[in-house]
Amino acid sequence: MAGLILIGIFGNASWAIGELFAGAWELSAKITEGRMDKYMCRPVNTVFSLVLEDMQVEEMIKGMLSLVILLIWYEIKFHVSAGIVDILFSFISFLLGIVIVAVTRSIYSCSAFWFENTGGLNYLIHMEDLELERYPLDIFNKATKVVLISIIPVGFVSCFPAMFYMNMIDNGLLYLLLEIAILGLLVLVLHLVWGKGIKKYESAGG
């Protein structure tokens, strides 16, 4: 019960803090509607500008505060005293997970370069609507677990941070390095997909 609540705490906070990358939600619409011209003229990375343009800093701050408050409540309620290293690793894993989800959203949004109607991919772009981050990975079969740490990587923003917090992951540093490697791979995929897709882009003016 305590573990399920902890997963829910991280999962719910992740979407509020993820508002820092709110532009990833609207990326596909900007592509299909030809509204990227002003970004392409800027002397900064176009994807970076698009993803961070609509950042909701206020929501992110609220999310961080609510996370801290709920974790304090959790420790008092369930008489838990997490170690400093566990808390540190948990927060690092949590933040890495948020970025992993944002980059994954952006990759899916790039499908708009090839398909005017992204259709079912909208469920992946707006993966928070599925509310899968509220559930522990252990209740799913192996195939679903793979989906929740790859195609819909919500496990990175809820289950893994919670496991770190409860000191349930051995070799935590190695795991964090693996998570960083996964993020690096996703960034590379986004770079390659964006590079291919931008060649097909047409602005609203033709």
Describe this structure in words.
With 206 residues, the chain is mostly helical. It is 63% helix and 0% strand. It has helices at residues 2-17, 23-32, 37-40, 46-53, 57-77, 84-109, 121-125, 142-148, 159-165, 172-197. Helix 1 packs antiparallel against helix 5 and helix 2 packs across helix 4 (46-53). The termini are far apart. The relative contact order is 0.18. The model has no long low-confidence stretch (mean pLDDT 82).
Key words describing this protein structure:
206 residues, elongated, 10 helices, mainly alpha
The helix-strand sequence is HHHHHHHHHH
- Helix amount, in percent? 55-70%
User: Total number of helical segments?
Assistant: 10
The biggest sheet amounts to: none
- Overall pLDDT, averaged? 82
Q: Please tell me how large the radius of gyration is.
A: 18 Å
Show unreliable segments.
none
Q: How far is the first residue's CA from the last residue's CA?
A: 56 Å
The count of DSSP E runs of length 2 or more, i.e. the number of strands, is 0
Shape: elongated
**Structural category:** mainly alpha
Strand content: under 5%
